[in-house]
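Action item from last week, closing it out:
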Amino acid sequence: MKTERIILGIDPGTNIMGYGLISVEGKQMKLLAMGVLKLSKFPGHALKLRKIFERTLAIIDEYHPDELSIEAPFFGKNIQSMLKLGRAQGVAMAAALYRDIPIFEYSPRQIKQSITGRGSSSKEQVSSMIMNLLKIAETPEYLDATDGVAAAVCHSFKNGITASPKSSAPKSSGGWKNFISENPDRVK
């Protein structure tokens, strides 16, 4: 019986798609890979979508994830941008469906909330927490990579695969600052 679970997280985009893979065994979580797919060099939206499908399929074939966790498009004022982002998400999901991988979708707010405890956190705050949590030494060039990892970690937390740091945080006032000072071994 397989005890390790591999979760692929994707932060979809039509200029940059971030991805991250984590392995969870017992309550231990470790980073397997993270990166970005740069799409701005490809002419035309259809070619970008093809590249998203091909790269997602290649990642799946290399790491054999058990589940895909993907960030849902957020509601914005620019309808064309939302449409393109939705297409990018759909193509990544199609690659997972093509390989019979279950898909889980989380809003940007849900992902931020599960990682930092605040749904309005910045990309930098999410990246910092992911780097501390998974002991990543070097900040990636594009924060879309840690956003992809955050989607995977969020899924792990939301489904009780691993415990969220905030679930262990004190219920008293003080929030993260207090938690960090009381749990130096849990953060870098």
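Closing note: Residues 170 and 178 are 8 Å apart (CA to CA).
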